[in-house]
Amino acid sequence: MNRLTYKSLKAEVNPPNYVFDIKKFEVYFSLICSLVLTLLLLVVTIKSNTYEIIKLLDVTRNILLNTVFGLLGMLGFIVSGLAIITGTINNKITQKLIENDKYKSLLSIFFSFAFIGKFIGILIVALIMVYFLGSMPLSFNICIFLGLSFVLSFSLFFSIFFAVSLLITCINIFQINFNYSAEDRVSIIESQEEIDIRFNDARIDTLTSILINKANLTKEEFTDELIKNINNDCPEEYKKKVIKKAKKYYHFE
User: Fold this and answer.
1) Which of 67, 115, 157, 199 has the fewest C-beta atoms under 10 angstroms from its C-beta?
2) Which segments cross the bilayer (predicted)?
């Protein structure tokens, strides 16, 4: 039996590269936001003197530091969210997903959590490095400043919007869990109803057998009495169907 690993599952699912999927909302909207922010920084730096640029760099370093703390909290949210979701998917639901050929879809959802977790982890490291780099006594280079601003802002916006999209994913997983759990409940109810029907059949057959034996009735006498009671008590629209069922059940014509 082949042992399932993260790499083997990833190769089987083959999740997309979310960062470069320009059709996704979180990608193109993050791109727009980062472009707007970079253009604003370009205008500010062009119109600023040396003192104002130093002040801008100080503000940027503070933003970087606060962003790191915020991303650490987001990373904790993603890790705990993935742990909770994987805990709610039990073996029965997994088996039903496999039977309905939807197991890979579930895995792709889990891989999206893993992807954004790794992405945020790398982004945190990058932000820390840029923070210390900005603290060094280096000459200001507008191209490097704007380039880093664009890349880091895009990464930050993407992380935020992707994490928000995971909330919708959580709702979808809850719906999947509820649907398949509902099927289990229906199956249990149907099984219980079948047991009740079988029990009632056995109980009625036993009572009928005892009554026939006690009264020393023949089968013909019993069936005649049964037909008579049906004709007397049963509504007219159901008589034929009930008599047909009685004949089939007790094997008489």
Assistant:
1) 199
2) 25-43, 63-85, 106-132, 138-171
